[in-house]
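Weekly modeling sync, notes
Attendees: S.R. (lead), two postdocs, one rotation student

Agenda item 3: backlog of single-chain predictions. S.R. asked that every request posted to the team notebook include the full sequence so nobody has to chase files. The rotation student volunteered to paste the first one in as an example of the format we agreed on. Action items at the bottom.

Example entry:
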Amino acid sequence: MADVFSPEKRSAIMARIKGGNTKPELLVRRIVHSLGYRYRLHSKQLPGKPDLVLPRHHKVIFVHGCFWHGHPRCKRSALPTSNVTFWQEKIGKNRVRDKRTVRNLRRMGWEVLVVWQCQTRDVDRLTHCLERFLQD
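Predicted structure, as returned to the notebook:
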């Protein structure tokens, strides 16, 4: 199936996709802050530059987009029907990198929580999940 946009238009659309300060990430930050925790953002000293780093508690939080990180069994992670091979490889590499990053952080003694984009739809449930994770 051919793309409905010209290559120039598709390039412009893709260029507008940003990796930081997404709505799900901002929501998680707001909840963590309201729970009384302070954090650092995107620490370059840690593998994968976690979205939130709580150094005092030795915990990190990643906020993953379901599509870009290949959330299993999530409707938001459905691959496009055009250029399927490219997207399978790209998302597959992202998933491998994510697993390696989490493994490395755990080996370094960090506790890791991955919050998926679709989990941010239920704020009460997300808040409860974050509270449980952040309790010492």
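Discussion: group reviewed the output briefly. The chain has one domain: 19-134.
Action items: rotation student to repeat for the remaining queue; S.R. to check formatting next week.
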